[in-house]
Each structure stands twice: as structure tokens, then as C-alpha cells.
Design goal:
By secondary structure, the chain is mainly beta. The chain is about 0% helix and about 50% strand. The protein has strands spanning about 5, 10-15, 20-25, 35-40, 45-50, 60, 70-75, 80-85, 90-100, 110, 115-120. The strands form two sheets. Strands 2, 4, 5, 6, 9, 10 and 11 form a seven-stranded mixed β-sheet that branches. A four-stranded antiparallel β-sheet has the order 1-3-8-7, with no helix packed on it. A hairpin with a 6-residue loop joins strand 4 (about 35-40) and strand 5. It is globular.
Amino acid sequence: QVHLVESGGGLVQTGGSLRLSCAASGLTFSGYARGWFRQAPGKERELVATITRNSDTVYYGDFVKGRFTISSDNAKNTIYLQMNSLKPEDTAVYYCTADSRRTIITSTSDYWGQGTQVTVSS
């Protein structure tokens, strides 16, 4: 059975950093589109970062503007999201997701983690 387990969320002040992790089991992450969505209260889920299925090309949401970095460790079957210069508007539940068919993750990707809360105080 496929499981995606996020960790690393928490409370941080404006300008601080967090590193999120997502460990996969039941699939080999490198064979999937994989990455991160986030959802704030009252808002739709939005793409944070994705690694493509075919070429491992990286794409980021427009709001990132160099502050976040997605990476993968295939030996650990894990992806990461390094978040720097955090802002209050980054406050959201961050979800790890993977898709077996699409080039990039979407809001309807095949597999989702339970989410990890990121709260940035002002």
C-alpha cells in the first residue's frame, strides 16, 4: 500500500526557515511526478514545487521567487522542501503528493500525504 508521510512543519517567525520531508513507501518515488502543494484556510490548494516524472525538471509556484528549494534523495525514497525567508502568507498545510501518469503533480494527483502544518508568525 502506498503511503506518503510528511514531517518538519511547525511554528516559525517571519524570515525563518523550515525543511519539510516526505518519505514514500509502496512506490519508488523517482518513477513518479512528485512534489508539494499547500492549502491555507479558505483558499484552494496551490502548487508549491514539483519534480517531473520524465526528466526530473523542477518547477515552482510563482510565489516562491527563489525562497524554496525542492530536492530528492532516491536512496531514502524521500523528497524535501527547504523553505527560507518565510512570510505569514506561507502559513498553510503542506501536502506531499505523487502521480504515476502525469508529467507534474496536480491538484488531483494519485497519492497524497496527510499534510504538515506550517505556521509563520508576524
